[in-house]
Design a protein that fits this description.
This protein is of the alpha+beta class and 800 residues long. It has 34 helices and 21 strands. It has a five-stranded antiparallel β-sheet, with no helix packed on it.
C-alpha cells in the first residue's frame, strides 16, 4: 500500500515538474520572440514610424486601416457589423465579423489603431512562435530545435510581409494553430484542438477553409502513414475520424462562414464575372515562366530583399506577390541533411513534401490550381512551403545536436551549390546583401563542421541559434523598417486621414441630419496608390470602393451606367471609382456635397452652389440633390436600358425605373415605357424638372440606421420604389407592416413594389443564411460538447 502511494506521489511530482518545465520553456520562447521584436521593430515601438506603408504595401493605408476604422466605429455606434453605407453604395460587411475576432485593434478607438498595429503584430508572432515550437516538440524535437523553429516561423519573409499585409500575419497564426492541433490529434489523440483550429480558419476567411482542407488532405494521411506503415485501413480509419472533427470545426463557424460564402459568390471574382480563371486555366500544364521568375524564386529564399526592397523591387511581378520563401539561411543548408540517417519511408515522405513545394514553382499551372485559378501569386503557398522548410531543417538540427548526425560531404556540396546560386546572372541582385548572406552561410558551415569535428554539437547548436537570431534581425529590419511609412507625427498634423476633411465633415454633419452622399475628389491616404475607401475612415457616405470583393450588384450597376467597362477586368472591379465625374448620376445617387481642390468645374455649373472654403479645399452643395428612395410609376426593360448611350442612361434613371424580365413578372405588370416614349422623354429632358418630379414622390425618412430604414411615401399609382443602394438578398421590406418582396431594379439596386396610397415603408437588413448558420453552429457546438465529454481522446497512433 505504501509502495503504491509513493508511486502515485512520484507520478504527481513528475507531472508537476514536467508542467513547470514546459511553462519555463514557453516563457523562454516568448522572451526570445519579444527581444527580436524589440530589435526588428524598434523604429515602430520607440521611434516615430507606424505600420502603415506608403509604398507597394499601401494596402495597409488604402484597405486594411479603413476597414479597421469602419469596424471600430461600427462596434461602438451600432454593434455587430451587418450592412454599411460607408462601403461603395452600400455593402454587407457581416463577413468581417471574423476580422473583429482575430484582429484586436478593431476593439480600440479609431484614434489608437495606427500606433497599436505593431503591438497586434507582436501578439500574432508570439502566438505563432509558441504554437510552432510546441508543434516541433510534439514531433519529438528537443528544446533547442523547437526554440529556433519558433524564431524562424515568427520572423520569416511571410510574417514580415504581415507588417503591411496584415492578413499574412493572421494566416500564420491560423495555420500554425491548425498544424499544432493536427499534431495534437495525431500524436496524443486530443482532437478538440483540431475542431477549434478549423473554426479559427473559418472565421478568418471562408476561402481559407478550402486551403485548410487542402492542407489536411495532404498532411494527415502522410503523418498517419508515417506512424502506421503498411496498415492502410488504420490510416483510413484515423483519417476519416479526423475529417469528421474538421467538418465539426466548419460547423462551429457556420454562423459567419455561410454568409461569407454568399458574399464571396456575390462578388465579381467569386461569381466569375471578372476573374483570372479563364486566362490561368489555359496556361500549359507543364508550361514554364520567364527567367526572371525562376531567378526571383531562387534568390528570395536567401533574403526577402536581395532582389530589391519595396518600390525598388527588380524581380518577377511585385514585391508582395513574388515568392516569399525566406525562412533563414540555415534552413537551406540543413534541409538536405533531413534525408540522412532516417528510415526509407521518412525519406519518401520528405521527398514528396519537397516535390509539393518545388513542382508548383517550376510549373506555374499547379500553383494556379492551388488557388483554383483565381490568382497568379504565391502568398499562402509560400507559407506552406515555409512550414515544410523549417520542419525539415529543424529535424536535421535536432539530429545534429542530440544524435550527432551530420554528413560533412553533403554539407560541403550544399554550400557550394548555394554559393553558386548567389552568383547567378541576375542584374537586379543587391550585392551588399549577397555578401552578407555569404558570410552567414560560411559561419553556419564552420560552426556545424566544428561541432561535428570536436564533438561539441550541443554547444555549437546554441551558438547557431544566436547567429540565426542575429541574421533574422539584420534581414528583417530591412524588410520592415527601410521603407516609407506614415509617421506618428503625421497622425497629429493636418495631413493624410487627419486633413481638412475632418473639419468639413464636422461642419456638414452639424447642420444636416438627412441622408446624403458626398463626392470627395481628392485622396487622403497619402500613399503610392489612391485611397478609394476614405468614406470608411471619415464616416461619410460616398460611391467609391476599393476591395477585392465588391458587391456584385454594385459593380453591375456601375457597368450598366458605363462607370466601369462592360467587360471589366478584375482590377477595374476592385478599384471602383463610383460615379465620379457623372453629375446626373451623382445627383441620382443622393450626392448633396462635393469636396474639391479645383473649384472651377463647380463654379460654372448652375446645379452647384458654394458652401464653404477651408484653405485650398472647396465645398459645394448640389442644389438638385435627391433623397434616398425614389418612386417610379413605370419602367423600361433592362435590355433597352443597356443599349442606350451613356448620357441617355443618366437621364433615363431620373425618368423611369429599370427592370429585368424576371423582375417584371414579379411586379404583376406595371406600365412599361415604349422605346418611342422613352426617346421622347429623354429628348425633352429637363434636369430641374426631372428632379422636382422625383422629389415630390420620394421617400420621407423617419428614422435611419445602417440596417433599418423607416419611412413614409405617398404614390398615386402602383410603381417601384428604388433605393440607391446595392441589391442584396438580405434586405427585407415591410409595407404597412406587411412583408413585401424586394426586387432588383436599375440593374443592381434595391427596389420594392408599391400600390397606390399613403404607405409606411420599412426595410431591414439581415445577412443571408444567418438563421441557418446559427442553427448549424448551435448544433455543432452541442455535438462538440457531448463528444468531448464522451470521447475526450480518439484512438490514433502515437507520433514516431
Amino acid at each position: 500500500m505504501k509502495f503504491k502511494l509513493g508511486l502515485v506521489r512520484w507520478r504527481r511530482a513528475s507531472e508537476l515538474l514536467s508542467s513547470h518545465r514546459r511553462l519555463f520553456r514557453t516563457g523562454v520562447v516568448v522572451f526570445a520572440l519579444i527581444v527580436l521584436w524589440l530589435v526588428i521593430y524598434r523604429d515602430f515601438i520607440f521611434g516615430g514610424k507606424t505600420l502603415l506603408y506608403k509604398d507597394i504595401g499601401s494596402d495597409s493605408i488604402t484597405v486594411s486601416f479603413p476597414y479597421y476604422v469602419l469596424l471600430s466605429d461600427y462596434l461602438r455606434e451600432i454593434g455587430i457589423p451587418l450592412w454599411s453605407f460607408r462601403v461603395g453604395m452600400g455593402q454587407n460587411i457581416f463577413p468581417l465579423v471574423g476580422t473583429v475576432l482575430v484582429s484586436p485593434v478593431v476593439w480600440l478607438p479609431k484614434g489608437m489603431i495606427a500606433q497599436a498595429l505593431v503591438y497586434q503584430h507582436l501578439i500574432y508572432l508570439a502566438i505563432a512562435g509558441v504554437l510552432f515550437g510546441s508543434f516541433l516538440s510534439l514531433r519529438g524535437l528537443n528544446f533547442a530545435a523547437s526554440l529556433l523553429g519558433a524564431l524562424l516561423l515568427s520572423f520569416p519573409a511571410y510574417m514580415c510581409m504581415g507588417s503591411c499585409w496584415y492578413f499574412h500575419a493572421t494566416e500564420v497564426v491560423c495555420f500554425t494553430f491548425l498544424l499544432f492541433a493536427t499534431e495534437q490529434a495525431v500524436a496524443r489523440g486530443h482532437w478538440f484542438y483540431l475542431a477549434l483550429a478549423v473554426a479559427l480558419v473559418g472565421l478568418f476567411s471562408v476561402f481559407h477553409l478550402y486551403l485548410c482542407a487542402l492542407f489536411l488532405c495532404f498532411y494527415v494521411p502522410a503523418r498517419l502513414f508515417d506512424c502506421f506503415p503498411g496498415r492502410p485501413w488504420v490510416v483510413l480509419r484515423s483519417s476519416v475520424l479526423l475529417a469528421a472533427v474538421a467538418v465539426l470545426g466548419v460547423g462551429l463557424t457556420a454562423v459567419v462562414s455561410l454568409g461569407s460564402f454568399h458574399s464571396l459568390l456575390n462578388s465579381p471574382r467569386g461569381s466569375g464575372t471578372s476573374s483570372y480563371a479563364n486566362t490561368l486555366i489555359t496556361f500549359p500544364v507543364f508550361g514554364l515562366e520567364t527567367p526572371s521568375y525562376y531567378l526571383t524564386a531562387i534568390l528570395r529564399a536567401f533574403s526577402n530583399d536581395i532582389a530589391g526592397i519595396g518600390d525598388h523591387f527588380r524581380g518577377w511581378n511585385n514585391y508582395l506577390e513574388a515568392p516569399m520563401a525566406y525562412s533563414g539561411l540555415l534552413c537551406l543548408l540543413l534541409v538536405p541533411q533531413a534525408f540522412i540517417g532516417t528510415e526509407k519511408r521518412k525519406r519518401i515522405l520528405y521527398g514528396l513534401l519537397l516535390l509539393l513545394m518545388i513542382v508548383p514553382v517550376v510549373f506555374p499551372w499547379f500553383r494556379y490550381l492551388f488557388w483554383l485559378f483565381q490568382g497568379d501569386y504565391f502568398r499562402t503557398f509560400s507559407l506552406f512551403s515555409v512550414f515544410g522548410m523549417i520542419t525539415l531543417s529543424m529535424t536535421a538540427l535536432y539530429r545534429y545536436s542530440a544524435r550527432r548526425t551530420l554528413n560533412l560531404w553533403l554539407l560541403s556540396v550544399t554550400s557550394v551549390i548555394l554559393l553558386t546560386v548567389l552568383y547567378l546572372p541576375f542584374r537586379g541582385i543587391d550585392f551588399g546583401l549577397r555578401k552578407i548572406a555569404i558570410l552567414f552561410l560560411f559561419a553556419y558551415v564552420v560552426l556545424l563542421a566544428a561541432g561535428r569535428y570536436f564533438g561539441r554539437e550541443s554547444i555549437c547548436t546554441w551558438v547557431i541559434i544566436g547567429l540565426c537570431a542575429a541574421e533574422l534581425c539584420f534581414f528583417d529590419r530591412i524588410t520592415v523598417a527601410y521603407r516609407s511609412t506614415v509617421m506618428k507625427q503625421d497622425l497629429k498634423e493636418r495631413v493624410g486621414y487627419n486633413d481638412s476633411t475632418v473639419d468639413v465633415l464636422r461642419d456638414i454633419k452639424a447642420g444636416d441630419g438627412s441622408f446624403y452622399r458626398i463626392t470627395k475628389l481628392y485622396p487622403s491616404g497619402n500613399a503610392a496608390h489612391s485611397s478609394l475607401n476614405d468614406a470608411m475612415v471619415f464616416g461619410y457616405y460616398g460611391t467609391m470602393s476599393y476591395s477585392s470583393f465588391n458587391n456584385l450588384n454594385y459593380v453591375r450597376f456601375l457597368m450598366a451606367v458605363d462607370s466601369i467597362p462592360q467587360k471589366a477586368t478584375e482590377i477595374e472591379t476592385r478599384w471602383a471609382y463610383g460615379l465620379i465625374g457623372r453629375s446626373l448620376l451623382s445627383t441620382f445617387a443622393c450626392e448633396k456635397y462635393v469636396l474639391s481642390k479645383d473649384p472651377v468645374p463647380f463654379q460654372t455649373n448652375p446645379a452647384y452652389e458654394s458652401f464653404k472654403r477651408y484653405g485650398k479645399l472647396y465645398v459645394f452643395r448640389n442644389r438638385l440633390s435627391l433623397p434616398l428612395g425614389l418612386f417610379y410609376p413605370d419602367y423600361i426593360s433592362e435590355k433597352m436600358f443597356l443599349e442606350l448611350p451613356s448620357l441617355r442612361k443618366e437621364r433615363a434613371l431620373l425618368l423611369t425605373a429599370v427592370l429585368s424580365d424576371d423582375e417584371n413578372v414579379r411586379t404583376n405588370g406595371l406600365p412599361r415605357m415604349s422605346p418611342s416614349e422613352l426617346q421622347e422623354s429623354v429628348e425633352g429632358f429637363s434636369f430641374p424638372d426631372a428632379v422636382a418630379v422625383r422629389r415630390n414622390t420620394a421617400l420621407r425618412i423617419r428614422s435611419f440606421t445602417q440596417n433599418c430604414i423607416r419611412s413614409a411615401v405617398r404614390c398615386d399609382t402602383s410603381g417601384i420604389l428604388v433605393f440607391q443602394t446595392a441589391f442584396d438578398r438580405g434586405w427585407r421590406a415591410l409595407i404597412d407592416g406587411v412583408p413585401s418582396p424586394t426586387l432588383k431594379a436599375d440593374v443592381g439596386l434595391l427596389g420594392v413594389k408599391l400600390g397606390p396610397g399613403e404607405h409606411t415603408a420599412e426595410i431591414r437588413y439581415s445577412p443571408p443564411f444567418l438563421r441557418l448558420g446559427v442553427v448549424i453552429t448551435a448544433i455543432s457546438t452541442l455535438i462538440l460538447g457531448v463528444a468531448f465529454w464522451r470521447w475526450p481522446r480518439i484512438s490514433v497512433p502515437s507520433a514516431s
